[in-house]
Amino acid sequence: MFSKNALKGQRILVTGGGSGLGKEMSRHFLKHGSEVVICGRRESVLEDTAKELTDETGGTISYFPLDIRDSLAIESSVEELFNEKPITGLVNNAAGNFISRTKDLSPNGFNAIASIVFHGTFYITNAVGKKWIENNQKGSIISILATWVWTGSPYVIPSAMSKSGINAMTKSLAVEWGQHGIRLNAIAPGPFPTEGAWSRLMPQTGDSKKDENVTSQYMNIPLQRAGEMNELGNLATFLMADGCEYLTGQTIAIDGAQYLSSSGTFANLNSLSDEDWDNIRDSIKKSNEKDKKQRSV
Hints:
By secondary structure, the chain is α/β, with parallel strands linked by helices. Helix content is 48%, strand content 13%. The chain contains 11 helices and 7 strands.
């Protein structure tokens, strides 16, 4: 779809780039000539991904551990990154999410998501943007959102609120920073199954019939399928490419028209019982414990 040199000369930072959508976009950027830097909390995962993508693409990829909830760590890391070699693009991909009835959410549960998706995304966007302005350098920022920035969605309230805030940030900074040649856009993906997200958003209830109902959300998609990673990569590459420099302040859905035909991604969970929610909570807890063992920051 693109020339293999479509992103030649670029250096793109991808948060949460060690796995999931971040890893797939990084792969796509490398295949099209960009240098890539990935960061995240699990250094061993970053290392494995960097090696895998280097061997696969022959491109240049580096990594560093970072907890984007830590504003001081972000300022220090971004300073070091620019001293080494300025980046030309940023992908705000790092996120957290899990399904829960809102009445069951604790303040810590809410903050666990908001501190990453809302605060962390702003911290790193502002740190990178300030360096570009200081250096009189143009740049491009892509934030990974969700279609519930338009529809809302039950059972993922912390994420829906936080991503809606980043949607507003995208539009606002597109205007404020446009004079500096800095573009901001966002992608709102529909279902693109990844292990990390799916273990928290589509956990097993313990009831095979209900599990079937939950995972049958693809039937709500007019195209009747989940997204393919290369399709997301194509859109991200397009938004980063030089030929797209007049497009800014936009959030683009890539969901097979799902959000146009439904009332929110998780509206179908209304039928779950208290026992189902207890099983889901246990499943998410096990997934979180596995993830924490791999974190280095």
